[in-house]
Amino acid sequence: MAEQEVKKVEAVMPVAPTPVETKSDVAEGKVTAPSPPVAAEKEKAATATEESKALAIVQKTEPAPKKVSGGSIDRVIALADLEKEKRLSFIKAWEDSEKTKAENRSQKKLYVVAAWENSKKAALEAKLRNIEEK
């Protein structure tokens, strides 16, 4: 027995344009037949297009650079941007200097505490040596 291949064939029904009611049809009372269900036709069309999808090439476009027209408004905007950057750099420098000052103060206090601890330890060790010698 020879094997037979079963081929799946789908018939795509063209979508008929829906009849348009004009004012005269409405005035005369003509009734038009409702169009067939659109969802079923769209589903059939979607399955047909899924089988024959093609990849589209998407090209990335970069935004256009700012145009410099040389007008006074552009100059004012550029100067304002420059002033803003300058102000922000001063703020950042001030923050960095304040952080450095705070770190230096804390290190100094830690050294003072460590020195006090070492002096107390040395004094106690000296006292213990005196007690052991006697």
UniProtKB/TrEMBL annotation:
Please list the residue ranges that the record marks as compositionally biased, kind Basic and acidic residues: 1-10
Full protein name: CARBOXY-TERMINAL REGION REMORIN
Show where the Remorin C-terminal domain sits.
86-134
Q: PANTHER family from the xrefs? A: OS02G0117200 PROTEIN, REMORIN-LIKE
Query: Which residue numbers delimit the Remorin N-terminal domain?
Result: 24-82
Output the Pfam families linked to this UniProt entry: Remorin_C, Remorin_N
Q: What segment(s) does the record annotate as region Disordered?
A: 1-44
| Phylogenetic placement of the source organism | Eukaryota, Viridiplantae, Streptophyta, Embryophyta, Tracheophyta
Q: Identify the domain of life.
A: Eukaryota
Family from the record: Belongs to the remorin family.
